Amino acid sequence: MKEWRYLIAEQRSTLLAIGIFALMFFIYLVNHPAIEGNGFTATAVSNVSQTAANKAVLLAFVAMAQTLVVITAGIDLSVGMIFILTNCLASWLVVGTPLETAFGVVVVLGVGLLCGALNGLIVIVGRLQPIVATIATGSIYFGLALMLRPYPGGSVNEDLADALTGRLFGFIPSSLVALAVVVLVIWVPFSRSLLGRTAYASGSSEAAAYMSGVPIGKAKFLAYTLAGLLASIGGLFLTFFTYTGEAALASGNAYTLFSIAAVVLGGVSLFGGKGSAIGAIFGALAFRTIGDLLFVFDFDPLWQPLFQGVVLLVAVSLGAFALFRVRNRLEWFQ
Amino acid sequence: MEAESEGRTGLLFRMEGISKRYGGVRALENADLPVTAGRIHAILGENGAGKSTLIKVMAGVVAPDEGRMLMDGREVRFSSPADANAAGIACIFQELSLIPDLSVADNIAISDPPRRFGLIDRRAQRRIAEEALARAGASDIHPRTLVKDLPLSRRQMVEIAKALARNPRILILDEATSALTATDVTKVFSVLKRLRAEGLALLYISHRMHEIAELADECTVFRNGRKVATYQAGTRTDTEVIEMMIGREYSNVFPPKPARAATAETPPLELKKLGWTGRLRDISLTVGRGEVVGLGGLDGQGQRELLLALFGVLRGCTGEVLVDGKPVSISSPAAARKRGVGMALIPEDRKTEGLMLPMTVRENLSFAVLDRISRAGIIDHAEENRLIDEMVKLLAIKTAGVDIPVGALSGGNQQKVVIAKWLMRQPRIILLNDPTRGIDVGTKQELYQLLRRLADAGASILFYSTDYDELIGCCDRVLVLYDGRVVRTLEGDGITEHALIASALNIDGPTSKGEAA
User: Fold this and answer.
1) Which chain A residue's Cα is nearest to B309?
2) Which among A75, A246, B238, B357 has most CB atoms closer than 10 A?
3) Which chain B residues in 158-177 lie under 8 Å from chain A, judged by CB atoms?
4) Beta-carbon separation of A330 and B113 below 8 A
5) Chain B contact for A209, CB < 8 A?
6) For B132-171, what is each residue's pLDDT tens digit?
7) Domain check: are B106 and B57 in the same one?
8) B325 with B366, same domain?
9) B337 and B403 co-located in one domain
10) CB contact under 8 A, A194 and B113
11) Residue B79 sits in the same domain as residue B201
12) What is the band of B68 on the pLDDT scale with cuts at 50, 70, 90?
C-alpha cells in the first residue's frame, strides 16, 4: 500500500465529516436569500458565513470537549452544564477595565478546568461510570449556575465581545479564528503528546494500555480536565454573542446531546480510541448547518427538530455505507 | 559453549520464596527462580500450574504476598508494569497488549515515544518502529497499518518488536509462538538466539516440547503452584518432563486412528469449487462420516476463511456446499447450526468469538440450546441443569461451579466450555479453527481423545491446526492449502512432518500417495 493511502485511511472519518459539512454548507449558501439576491459576492458570502460561524462555534467548542472524553471511551453529560455555568459566571466577571476583564476570563476558564477536573477525579479515582458521574456533576454545575443567575441578566465587556464575534480583515469571522487558535493550542499538542496517545490507547483497549505501562489515570484526568476547559471557552463565547448570562436548562441539555451527535457525525467512535476533534468540529458545523437549512428553505420553524433529526440520521448513515461492502460478516462487529 | 556462557554472564535476577494467593487458591507457593544473563530459561507446566502468576509478579502486574525479588543483587519491588519496564523487564503476554485502534508504529513506541518539544516525533517513531520490526524479523509489516487490521500471527510479531524496542535486559515470552506460523517461529527462534548471544536473559514459556528442546538452556517445571525441578536442558526425556508436569504417568497423546474402508456412502459434507474474493479458489473436498480431515499449510493460506465460509460468515462465496448430498445455502451462523445442517464452529479466538467472558459457565453453555430447552419461550431449568451437568462431566471441565464467570476459568477450561457449548447441539459437522492454541498438554490430550470419540460416534470433523504434530496425530486425511487452493492431500501414513512442510511451502516433492491405513 502506498503512503498516501495510509494517510487517507487514517483521516477517512475526518474527511467524511468535512465532506458532509461542505455539502450542507453549499446547499445553505446557494439558497440563502442574501446570496440568491446578490450572487456569490465576497461580502455576501462573508456576511452569511459570519452569522453561521458565530452560531456554530459554540457547538464546535462543546463538541471538542466531548471528543476528548469520548476518545477515552467515556462520555461527559456535564459539558452543556459547564457551558451554561461559565456563561453565567462570565456575565458577572468579564466586565470593566481591560485588566478586570482579563482577570474575569482567567477565572471563567479556571472554573471550567476545575469542573472538568472534578469529573475526572470522580471517574478515575471514584471509579464511577462516566455516564452517571457526569449526570450528577452536571446537575451540580447547573445548580451553581442558577445561584449565579436566578434571572437572565448581567453584561460583558462589549469591546472584547465585538472583537471576537466580528470579522478579521473585514471578511474572516473572528470566532472561526479563535476556534482555530484553540485547536492549535489545545488539540494539536494533546493529540501528539504521550498523554493524548494514552487517552486513545485506554479508549481502544484499557487492559492492553495498562499492560503497556502507560499512564492511563493521568491521561484520562487530562482528557476530562481539558474537556471542562473547552466547554468553558464555549461558555465565554456564548456570553460574547448574547451579552448576558442565563441559566437555561433546556439550552444546557441541548448542547450536551448535540455535542454527542456532532461527535458521531465527525467520525469519533463512541466506543473510544478513534476519531479526532477536527472531525468533531466539522460534525458540529454540519449539524448547525442542517438546522439552518430550514431557514433558507422558508419552512415553518416548527418543523425544525423533525427535519434536523431526519437529516442527521441520513448523515450518520453515510458512515455505515462501508458495511455493505464487507465480505466477512465478522467485520460488522469490529 | 557451556563454560563460555557461564564465564561471560552472571546471575541477573532472582526470585526468593514468592507466594501468591487468590482468595483461597494458592497460585504460587514459595517459588524460587534464578535468571541468568545470556541464557534461555524455559518454564514448563500445565495451565494453572502457576507460570502465569510467576510472570505477572515479575512483570509488575500482581504484587506477591510473600517473598522478594533481587535484580543485580538489590531488592526490587514493582507496583506496576511501568516499574518492571523501567527495571529492564519486558514481557510478551499471551493476552496481547497491543492497542487495536493505534498503528503498528504507535504501538511499538507506546511506552516511551520519541518526543521533540514534548510532542511525539512521528518520524523518529517511524524509524524506531522500522528498526524494531527488522530486529524481530518482521520488516514486511508496514508501520502505519492499524493493529486491528493485522491477522493474529502478525500481531504477535508486532508484540515481539514492541518488547525489543524497549531494549530489555530480561525478556519474558509467554506462549509467544502459539499464534505464529511455522515460518515465523523459525524467524523468532533465530532472533531469540541472537538476543541470547547479546547477553539478554530470556524466560520462555511454551507448551510445545520441541520448541523447548530447540531453544532452552535450562528448564524449570511448575505444578500446582510449586516448583518441581530445575534442570539443564537435554538431561530429561520428553516423557519424564511431561510426567513432572502432570504428576502422573503419561501414555499415548493421540488416540489410535481406526481403520477406514472406502465407502460409497454420501459424505455428510461436500464442497464443490468453493471460491471467495480470490482468497479461496476452487476448493473441492469431502468429509466422510466419522472422518477427521485436517487443514494444513502455512498460516493465512485460506484455512480460516474456508471454515468461516462454511459457517456462513463470508459474503459472496461461489461454488456449492452439499450436506448429505443436497445443496444448501448457509447465509449465517444461525443457519449453519440449524437441525438440517447441524454445523458447529469452534472459533480461533475463544475470548471474542467463543465466549461471553463476564457471563457464567451456565449462561455460556445454554446459549447454544436455548431454543431446544425452552417451552413457549420459557427456559426449562431442570432440563438446562441436566444438560449442563452432563457436559461438564463429559469434558471434565474444572470449575468451582457453573454459576461463576467463564472468564475466571483457565484457558484450557475456557476452551472446553466453547466446545461443550457446541456439543450441546449434537452437531454432525464440526469445524475447528486452531482449537488448542495456548492450551496445556493435559487438556490437549483430552481434546484429541474427544475429537476421536466424536468422530467414532459419527461426526464429520474438519480441523485446522497450526501445530503439525496435531495434524499428524489426529487426522485421517490432511488437505494442504496454499494461496487459497488445496495443493496436496495427504492420507494415512503419508501424513508426515516432512510431507506437510514440503507441501505447505508448495515445494514439489515426491508425490506420496499413502493409501488409507
Assistant:
1) A328
2) A75
3) 162
4) no
5) yes
6) 999 888 889 999 999 988 887 788 889 989 999 988 999 9
7) yes
8) no
9) no
10) yes
11) yes
12) very high
How many domains are there within chain B? 3
Cell of A54: 458565530
List the 323-382 stretch of B: residues with Cβ below 8 A of A.
332, 353
Q: Spell out the alpha helix ranges (H) of chain A.
A: 3-31, 33-38, 42-71, 79-93, 98-124, 130-148, 158-165, 174-182, 188-191, 194-204, 206-211, 216-242, 249-265, 277-296, 304-318
Structural domain span for residue B76: 2-246
What is residue B476's DSSP assignment? S
Q: For B315, name the nearest residue in chain A, comparing CA atoms only.
A: A327
Between chains, do A213 and B81 touch, taking CB under 8 Å as contact?
Answer: yes
Per-residue model confidence (pLDDT) at position A107: 97
Q: Is B468 part of any domain?
A: yes
Q: What is the DSSP letter of A186?
A: I
CB contact under 8 A, B313 and A1: no
Closest CB from A211, A273, A328 relative to B313: A328
Segments in B234-302 forming alpha helices (H) = 238-246
CATH 3.30.300 is right for the domain spanning A3-333: no
Q: What is the ipTM of this complex?
A: 0.81
Domain borders along chain A are 3-333
CB contact under 8 A, A6 and B144: yes
Tell me if A214 and B111 make a contact (CB, 8 A cut-off): yes
The answer on B277 and B158 residing in a single domain is no
SS3 A46: helix
For an interface test with A, which of B58, B99, B305, B357 has the most A Cβ atoms less than 10 Å from its Cβ? Answer: B99
The cell for B160 is: 515481539
Does the beta carbon of A323 lie under 8 angstroms from any beta carbon of chain B?
no
Instruction: Count CB atoms within 10 A of the CB of residue B16.
Output: 15
CB proximity B119 to A under 8 Å? yes
Q: Establish if B420 belongs to a structural domain.
A: yes
- Read off the pTM: 0.76
- Cα gap B383→B389, rounded to integer Å: 10
Residue B262 domain flag: no
B297 contacts: CB under 8 Å, gap ≥ 6: B303, B480, B481, B482, B487, B503, B504
User: Is B140 inside any structural domain?
Assistant: yes
Residues linked to residue B485 through DSSP beta bridges, in sequence order: B482
Min CA distance, A196 vs chain B (Å)? 10
Three cell numbers written together for B195: 538476543
Residues B154 and B11 in one domain: yes
How far apart CA A77 and CA A131 sit, in angstroms, is 7
Q: CB–CB of A330 and B308 under 8 A?
A: yes
A210/B101 Cβ within 8 A = no
Cα separation, B142 vs A145, in Å, equals: 52
Of the candidates A54, A80, A47, A96, the residue with the CA atom closest to the CA atom of residue A237: A54
In this structure, what CATH number is given to the domain that contains residue B25?
3.40.50.300
Q: List all residues of chain B from 298 to 317 with a beta carbon under 8 Å from chain A.
A: 305, 308, 312-316
Write b or e for each residue in B58-71: b if 16 or more Cβ atoms lie within 10 A of its Cβ, otherwise e.
bbbbbebeebebbb
Check whether residue B274 and residue B402 sit in a common domain.
Answer: no
Residues 55-94 of B with CB under 8 A from A: 60-61, 80-82, 84-85, 91, 93
Bridge partners of B464?
B295, B433
CA distance B295 to B478: 6
What gap in Å lies between CA A309 and CA A229, rounded to an integer? 29
B16 and B140 co-located in one domain: yes
Query: In A, residues 229-258, which contact B (CB 8 Å cutoff)?
Result: none
The one-letter amino acid at B294: G
CB pairs under 8 A between A and B: 100
Minimum Cα–Cα distance from A274: chain B residue: B101
Indicate the burial class of A42 (C-beta count within 10 angstroms; 0-12, 13-18, 19 or more).
exposed
Which candidate, A167, A159, A160, A161, places its Cα nearest to that of A49? A167
